[in-house]
Amino acid sequence: MVYKRQLAEHLSYKSALALLPPAAITPPIEAVRRTRDKSYARWPPHINLIYPFLASPSEGKELQMQSSSDQSRQLKEDIRSRIFKVVQDIPPFHISLSADPAGEFIHSKKSRTVWLRPLQEADGSDETAITQLQVALQAEFSQCIADDRPFVPHLSVGQAWNERTSTNLHKEIKDSISNFLSKIGPNPSKEGEIPACLDWYVDQVYVLERNGFHGRFQVIGSVKLGEP
């Protein structure tokens, strides 16, 4: 029997500090997640920076009473101030979400997660700016360390159960992004193939919260990068 580690009372799996891609680039991601990601109903497409995050990070109307357009539940000001203190000196940055190739976590013989790789636009290196942002936020919220694994920035698109289903999922997300890009404006590489990469200008961080473990995460606050 596997026992889950007891989470400290000040932390919660019902809140997260994350990056959310702009709506303009999410259609090819959601087209795959809709049928491939077991967390599709609970999570929007995202890159977690700190999860689990602080328990009860918001105040106002209960989450279950909110409509999708109701912003009455807000991030607590003390938490917003702590985030602002960190990100005010971090300028926005460009990344590309790459499915060429996509990344993969192998959890066990029958469990894998396929994910998009955030690449630094300037030099193609992996996740440098995101990692620096996460390190700075983690230092401020040092009480939120609940996982001793190294931070690997990723945007999950689905799960696979063996090498065959993993290969299919890799192809599916790559094709989905390439087809999407071909429709909004071809930008072929030297070989004539459209790179399966989505451009993303990262300019703010978000705090998400859900009501109950089966509720959908909602944005309760955001803080822009590089604004004094």
From TrEMBL:
Pfam families in alphabetical order: 2_5_RNA_ligase2 (PF13563)
Superkingdom of the organism of origin: Eukaryota
Stretch forming the signal peptide: none
Source organism phylogeny: Eukaryota, Fungi, Dikarya, Ascomycota, Pezizomycotina
Organism: Delitschia confertaspora ATCC 74209
Protein name: 2'-5' RNA ligase
InterPro entries found in the cross-reference section: Cyclic_Pdiesterase
